[in-house]
Design brief:
6 helices; 18-stranded antiparallel sheet; Vitellinogen_open_b-sht; Vitellogenin/Apolipophorin; mainly beta; Lipovitellin-phosvitin complex, chain A, domain 4; Lipid_transp_b-sht_shell
Length: 432
């Protein structure tokens, strides 16, 4: 809180006050346990998080003979709440974690932001917040504030969101306080760009939504040998992610406790084809919008990343798919394959030039659209080489000149390379 009193020539003081409050609440009821024998855990329960931030600024004229304060001010408020039921299940042996979030309630206001200018007469003996007094009047240039409602999310998410904005038309049309980059826009999002009356809220109509819950699945695995029980048949990217064995396995309710031996064999065989004594790592992630009824088709987005390496060779694979079985034309897949040859890291002294010739090559193949093999394709091949023979003398002298000038400007003295270059230039009668 802050308080400032300003005297005036007419003998009545003006008082400026500002109150800031932040309320954070998390009510929960979690049940579950951990099994040491199977190295698995399961937690279920309800969470009710609430965050409310208020800032009230007032300017009052002190009139002790009236036993009241003529007051004007601005009340700003941010609030967010999302009660729901959560379930988490994990197994360390299989390296899988599954989470499920189900929103509770029929219609929820998830987020609210308001800027309310007001005026009132505040009595000395009344400690009620000024914005809640019956005498308080909201300051507005129009008799009936404008209201906009924007529904979204039903088509792609199966969740009926409604964005409601209410206030003066000039306030609604004001730009953001800061919009030059995403970080500044996010950081100053809570600061109002105008003190005109404005209020917006985000609602979720859970009763009329098709989606019941949001489920996520994470799977992590690794392999350090080239032994496989079944050979790889066909290219890994010949099918989309959810049409492979992985897409069938995640439909099983016991997926967290099952081993993905067949899917892991296909992924690592594809990566280890040209590697000797390889080591590989894999990460699979899927998010699913679970429908309320079995007659409603699911919406999913998933990705699978595999990386393998040996001494100098590196290979990687990426598969991404967004599948909306309700709106089939919105399905999208992306596949990428990376094959790179990198040299060993060179260790050298600072005063010595790197004399070893090195070369790095990489090839990136990308397929996306409706199919990874029959739609749009991009191939990027890069080669990076370094050799002292390829550097022209003029280019080398220019680089040494720039480095010496930087050292001299910063007052760091002259390095051995710069001293040698100056000595050589003086012999050749050239100014470096």
């Amino acid at each position: 809180d802050s308080f400032v009193r300003v005297p005036s020539a007419m003998g009545l003081a003006y008082t400026w006050t500002s109150y800031h409050t932040v309320f954070v609440s998390l009510k929960s009821k979690i049940e579950g346990g951990f099994s040491m024998s199977s190295l698995s855990a399961k937690l279920e329960g309800a969470l009710k998080p609430v965050v409310v931030s208020k800032m009230s600024t007032r300017l009052m004229a002190e009139t002790p003979f009236t036993r009241s304060y003529p007051t004007t001010g601005v009340d700003r408020q941010w609030a967010a709440a999302l009660p729901g039921r959560i379930a988490i299940e994990g197994d360390m042996k299989t390296g899988k974690i599954q989470t499920t979030w189900e929103t509770l309630g029929d219609k929820l206001r998830i987020v609210k932001h308001s800027v309310v200018p007001f005026t009132t007469i505040h009595k000395y003996t009344d400690f009620t917040p000024a914005i809640l007094l019956s005498e308080t009047k909201r300051i507005s240039y129009v008799e009936e504030p404008k209201e906009n409602k924007i529904p979204f999310g039903d088509k792609h998410l199966g969740m009926n969101f409604v964005f409601v904005e209410r206030g003066e038309s000039l306030a609604l049309a004001q730009p953001s306080v800061y919009s030059k980059d995403w970080f500044g826009t996010l950081f100053f999002a809570a600061s109002p760009s105008t003190l005109r009356q404005r209020e917006w809220s985000l609602y979720l109509d859970n009763a009329s939504s098709e989606t019941k819950a949001i489920k996520t699945i994470i799977s992590i695995s690794s392999k350090s040998d080239s032994k496989f029980e079944t050979p790889l048949s066909g290219h890994l990217h010949a099918k989309s992610l959810f049409d492979t064995v992985y897409g069938e396995q995640i439909m099983n309710k016991q997926y967290v406790r099952q081993q993905d031996s067949q899917w892991e064999s296909q992924k690592f065989q594809h990566i280890f084809q040209t590697l000797t004594n390889p080591t590989g790592y894999s990460l699979d992630f899927t998010a699913e919008l679970v429908p309320k009824s079995s007659s409603i088709k699911a919406r999913r987005i998933g990705s699978s990343i595999v990386y393998g390496m040996d001494g100098k060779s590196h290979r990687g694979s990426l598969m991404v798919e967004r599948r909306d079985e309700v709106e089939g034309q919105n399905n999208f897949v992306l596949c990428a394959e990376v094959d790179a040859q990198f040299p060993d890291n060179l260790v050298f002294k600072r005063k010595e030039l790197i004399k070893d010739e090195t070369e790095r090559r990489s090839t990136i193949k990308i397929g996306f659209g409706k199919s990874c093999t029959d739609d749009r394709k991009i191939t990027v091949a890069t080669t990076w080489t370094r050799s002292e023979e390829d550097i022209s003398p003029s280019l080398r002298n220019q680089w040494e000149k720039t480095q010496c000038q930087k050292q001299e400007t910063l007052g760091r003295g002259m390095s051995d390379e710069c001293i040698a270059a100056r000595r050589l230039s003086s012999i050749l009668n050239k100014a470096v």
